Amino acid sequence: MPKHVLVIGAGFAGLAAATSLAQRGYHVTILEKNEGPGGRARVFRAEGFTFDMGPSWYWMPDVFEKYFARFGKRVADYYDLVRLDPSYQVIFRGPEAVDIPARMEELRGLFERYEPGSAARLDAFLRQAAYKYEVGINKFVYMPGRSLLEFADPRLALDALRLDVLQSMHTHVRRYFQDPRLLELVEFPTLFLGAIPQNTPALYSLMTYADLALGTWYPMGGMHRIVQGMVALAQEQGVTLEYNVPVQQIVVENGRATGVQTAEGFRAVDIVVAGADYHHAEQHLLAPEWRHYNEAYWDKRTMAPSSLLFYLGISKRLPKLRHHNLFFDEDFARHAQEIYEQPQWPSRPLFYASAPSQTDPSVAPEGCENLFLLIPVAPDLPDTEETRERYYHLLMDRLERHCGTSIRDAVVYRRSYAHHDFVQDYNSYKGNAYGLANTLRQTAILKPSLKSKKVANLYFTGQLTVPGPGVPPSLISGQVVASEVEKEN
Ligand SMILES: Cc1cc2nc3c(=O)[nH]c(=O)nc-3n(C[C@H](O)[C@H](O)[C@H](O)COP(=O)(O)OP(=O)(O)OC[C@H]3O[C@@H](n4cnc5c(N)ncnc54)[C@H](O)[C@@H]3O)c2cc1C
Prior knowledge:
Bound molecules: flavin-adenine dinucleotide
Number of helices: 15
Oligomer: single chain
CATH class of the domain at 4-40 and 221-301 and 437-488: Alpha Beta
Structural class: alpha/beta
Helix content: 25-40%
Largest sheet: 7 strands, mixed
Distance between the termini: 13 Å
Number of strands: 19
CATH superfamily of the domain at 4-40 and 221-301 and 437-488: FAD/NAD(P)-binding domain
CATH topology of the domain at 4-40 and 221-301 and 437-488: FAD/NAD(P)-binding domain
Radius of gyration: 22 Å
Shape: globular
Strand order of the largest sheet: 7-6-15-16-17-14-18
CATH architecture of the domain at 4-40 and 221-301 and 437-488: 3-Layer(bba) Sandwich
C-alpha cells in the first residue's frame, strides 16, 4: 500500500511538494483552507477585470522549465510565456522616466549614458553574478539546509566561499557603480528578498542577474496561469485537491503525526507536509509539546515586508505606463529604514504599479486598464481604513502626475488589501506578504528547519523555510521537501 501524505495548503510550495511526491508513488491529498488554489498567487474577477492577487514578476524562467521537465512536460504545455521589452519602467526622482530595455546592448547604452565607463563594469558585474546564479540556483537552493555536512564536499565548500555570502550587497555594488540611479537599479531586486542591501549577502546579486540578463517574462492570461498549470500537472500525477477545508490541528502521538483534524473530522495519514505559513502550522496547529520553536523565536525573526495593495479597474488606457512600473521618485534608503529599522507606515514610500493590460488584453475590458499598486510596508503595523485611504490618494497624486491625466475619476473598480487580509486569508504571521527575509542570519541551515525536530513524520515547506521567499524559491522548496520525505519514508 502506498503511504498517504497529507499536504496542508495549495500554494506553490504545497503544490510542488504534492506533485513531486505523487510522482514518486505516494498517495497525496492537499487540504486548502481557501476556495481555490494558489495561496498568495490567487486570482479574482470583478467588473470584467481579472486581477492576479500577489506575484506579478515572472523571473528565472529556467526554474519553472526545470520543474515541468521533471514530469516530462514543458512550460509551453500549460501556458504561453512572453518576454517583456522593455522589462519595466523606472520613474526616478526628477521625475525622470526610463525604460529598462530587454536587449543587453541597449541596456549597456543606458548604463553608459548615466555613468561613462559603466557598461564595461556592468559586463563584469553580470559575469560574477552569472556564476552565483549558476551555482546558487542550480546547487545551493536545492539543498535541504538541515546540516552543515551538506557543504562537506570540497568543491561545494569552495563554491560557497566564492559566493560572497559575507560581503553585503550594498558594499558589493558600490565597487562597480556610483550613479545613484544605477545603484537603485542593481539593488532593487534584493528588496524582493525582504531585506535592505546592507543586510543582504552579495550572493544575491544573482537576483540582479536574473533581472537584467535573464529577463522579465509574463504568462499570457496572468500569473495565475502558472497555478492552473501546476494544478493540472498535480492532478495528472494523481494528487487529490480539496478546497474550503482548513486544517485545525496536526494530531501527534508518541512523536509521530497520526493525522489532521478538520471541521469534518479526523483524517488518518502517514506523513504530513505543512505548506501553510510555518509559524501558523507550528504554533497554531501543533500542541505546545510538539513545537520546536516558541513565540520568542518567531518574534526575533526578520520577516519580509507586508504590502498595502490596491486592485483598480480603470475605464481608460494609460499610455504612459508600462506593464511594470517602479516609482523610485522618493528616497529609497528612507523607505527601507521605515520597513526594516524603525518599522512604521512610510512617510514617502516608493511604490510599484503593474498594468498587465499593457501586454494582455484578456485581463481588462476593451479600452480599460487593469492596475495593481503595491507599497512594501513593515509587517505587524496597525492597518485601518483611514490609513489605506490616505495612501490611496498619495499614490494617485503621483500616478496622475506621471501619466499626465486624471485617474481617480476613471476608477470603476477598487479593492484594497493589507495586513488584516494576509492574516485572514493565509494565516500569515504578522501579516507578512513574502515570508521570511533572506538575511545572512536567516540563510540555509539558519532558517526554520524543513523537518520537524520533534515529530518524526512532519515536514514544512514554503516561503518561511528553505530556500526563501518568491515564486521560484517556493517551487524549489516543495521539490526539496519531497526529496527529504522520500529519503526518510
Ligand atoms: C503582493 C505580493 C506580491 C508578490 N510578488 C512576487 C513577484 O512578483 N514574484 C515572485 O516571484 N514572488 C512574489 N511574491 C511572493 C510569492 O507570491 C510567494 O513567495 C509564494 O507565492 C509563496 O508560496 P507558498 O506556497 O510558500 O505560500 P502561500 O502562497 O501562502 O500558500 C500557503 C497556502 O496554505 C493555505 N493555508 C494556510 N493555513 C491553512 C490551514 N490551516 N489549512 C489549510 N490550508 C491553509 C493558504 O490558504 C495558502 O493557500 C509576492 C507575494 C505577494 C503577497
